[in-house]
């Protein structure tokens, strides 16, 4: 281990933990909103199918939410252990933003989650629905602050460099929170979360339709998911285009790597569909390209000039190969989602949405596509800003803690073992729940037979019978259910 690079290991560890973490918020953000829609439709229409689906997905949400919280807490410790220099110089700006996330989103979710999970039979319908809305709002607010932090690292504004080397907030916090890339990243990421959830819901509905086309619950969830795919996917593609234009303005090197433009094109740049980037030779080998199409997309002009990586110093170029391919994976999945949405519209118009097994099989295969897309998008965003951790201000190599490689390697191995074990079991259980068909009279989240555990105060001792032995209760408390 002494021959390993501590910086590389620290980067691998953060990439591993944040990739694991990203899956769960991407799912729970969309699922919380879906639960709010289901409960709202039940209150409005009185149809039991919406309540059954609410309880069905509530169990899955509880597990995904818990794994997201746990993985997020573990990930945050790395700021102090592996990236202490980064934490020191950016703490006056990023510290308050992270605290706002805890004080608003986390407290909001924590305050209403218990009511949402266990309170349907204990509070009124409207109050329970308000709790569900608050949890959904909390997931969005959490995304708001976290994406504001990440966006400031991409496009830092509203700061000044103090004498002690720290970046300090300037005259207005609004310039920091609403930095140039934040609105675009927020819209793009939140819609990605909604699509991720929609395709999971659609896959589960399609899976059960393949087994029983008459299942009304499977029909309803599949129909709702396909509406999301058909409506939101075009909006997401449009938002992605706007986000790309914003990135071209503020992070041109990232776009150059995404497009594979090693050379400048003064009279219109081609759109390279596929190829093998060669950073040593400064070219894309075996390129399949459309002449001048990249200038049309990025500048809305066939003949608009586009600068290439030849205008960037070699030590400031991002890893082109990784960014080039992750971007294409993300875009390819996006157009595949659009195809599924249009296919479902065609079937809906023909009145055969529930009688198209090929569409259902395709929807099952597309179930994990949202997770792959958000991971590819994250790789594009984060690797594309390298070699900087704060774009243009702090290099990643200068942000790491002064640790030896064996220390980082040991924690990395521990993370890999624990994550694959614990979260592997969690994902297995979620898939097991999804494998069961939804039905009338769903129970939802169940409490234990013995009720809450007392952790403080005086606990009454067991009753004694005249013979001095503990008296056994005649009946067990009834199981409380949502």
UniProtKB/TrEMBL annotation:
Broad class of the protein's primary localization: membrane
Matches recorded under InterPro entries: Cyt-d_ubiquinol_oxidase_su_1
GO MF assignments: electron transfer activity; heme binding; metal ion binding; oxidoreductase activity, acting on diphenols and related substances as donors, oxygen as acceptor
Keyword Lipoprotein carried by entry: no
Membrane-crossing residue ranges in chain numbering: 12-35, 56-77, 97-120, 127-147, 191-210, 222-239, 323-346, 358-379, 408-431
Pfam (any one): Cyt_bd_oxida_I
Lineage top rank: taxon: Bacteria
Entry's Gene Ontology cellular component terms: cytochrome complex; plasma membrane
Membrane topology: Multi-pass membrane protein
GO biological process terms held by the UniProt record: aerobic electron transport chain
Chain intervals for the UniProt region annotation (Disordered): 445-482
Keywords, alphabetical: Cell membrane, Electron transport, Heme, Iron, Membrane, Metal-binding, Transmembrane, Transmembrane helix, Transport
Location of the protein in the cell: Cell inner membrane; Cell membrane
PANTHER family given in the database record: CYTOCHROME BD MENAQUINOL OXIDASE SUBUNIT I-RELATED, CYTOCHROME D UBIQUINOL OXIDASE
Name of the protein this chain belongs to: Cytochrome bd-I ubiquinol oxidase subunit 1 apoprotein
Protein source organism: Erythrobacter sanguineus
């Amino acid at each position: 281990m002494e021959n390993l690079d501590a910086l590389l290991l620290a980067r691998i560890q953060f990439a591993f933990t944040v990739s694991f973490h990203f899956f769960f918020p991407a799912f729970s953000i969309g699922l919380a909103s879906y639960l709010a829609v289901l409960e709202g439709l039940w209150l409005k229409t009185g149809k039991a199918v919406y309540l059954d689906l609410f309880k069905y997905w509530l169990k899955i949400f509880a597990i995904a939410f818990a794994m997201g919280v746990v993985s997020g807490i573990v990930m945050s410790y790395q700021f102090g252990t592996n990236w202490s220099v980064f934490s020191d110089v950016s703490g006056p700006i990023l510290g308050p933003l992270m605290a706002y996330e805890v004080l608003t989103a986390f407290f909001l979710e924590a305050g209403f989650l218990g009511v949402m999970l266990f309170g349907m039979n204990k509070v009124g319908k409207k109050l329970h629905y308000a709790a569900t809305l608050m949890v959904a709002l909390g997931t969005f607010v959490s995304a708001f602050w976290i994406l504001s932090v990440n966006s400031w690292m991409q496009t830092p504004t509203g700061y000044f460099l103090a004498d002690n080397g720290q970046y300090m907030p300037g005259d207005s916090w609004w310039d920091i929170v609403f930095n140039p890339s934040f609105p675009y990243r927020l819209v793009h990421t939140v819609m990605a979360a909604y699509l991720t959830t929609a395709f999971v819901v659609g896959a589960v509905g399609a899976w059960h339709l393949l087994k029983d086309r008459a299942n009304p619950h499977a029909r309803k969830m599949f129909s709702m998911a396909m509406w999301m795919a058909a409506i939101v996917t075009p909006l997401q593609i449009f938002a992605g285009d706007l986000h790309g234009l914003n990135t071209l303005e503020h992070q041109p090197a990232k776009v150059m790597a995404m497009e594979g433009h090693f050379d400048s094109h003064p009279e219109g740049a081609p759109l390279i569909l596929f190829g093998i980037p060669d950073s040593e030779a400064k070219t894309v080998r075996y390129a399949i390209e459309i002449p001048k199409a990249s200038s049309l997309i990025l500048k809305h002009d066939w003949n608009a000039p586009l600068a290439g990586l030849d205008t960037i110093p070699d030590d400031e170029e991002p890893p082109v190969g990784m960014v080039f391919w992750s971007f294409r994976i993300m875009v390819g999945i996006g157009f595949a989602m659009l195809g599924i949405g249009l296919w479902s519209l065609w079937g809906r118009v023909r009145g055969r949405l529930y009688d198209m097994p090929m569409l259902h099989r395709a929807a099952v295969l597309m179930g994990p596509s949202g997770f792959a897309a958000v991971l590819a998008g994250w790789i594009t965003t984060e690797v594309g800003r390298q070699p900087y951790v704060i774009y243009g201000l702090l290099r990643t190599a200068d942000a790491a803690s002064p640790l030896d490689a064996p220390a980082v390697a040991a924690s990395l191995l521990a993370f890999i073992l624990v994550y694959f074990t614990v979260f592997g079991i969690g994902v297995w259980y979620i898939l097991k729940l999804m494998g069961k068909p939804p039905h009338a009279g769903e129970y939802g989240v169940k409490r234990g037979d013995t009720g809450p555990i007392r952790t403080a105060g005086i606990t009454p001792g067991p009753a004694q019978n005249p013979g001095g032995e503990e008296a056994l209760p005649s009946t067990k408390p009834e199981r409380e259910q949502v």
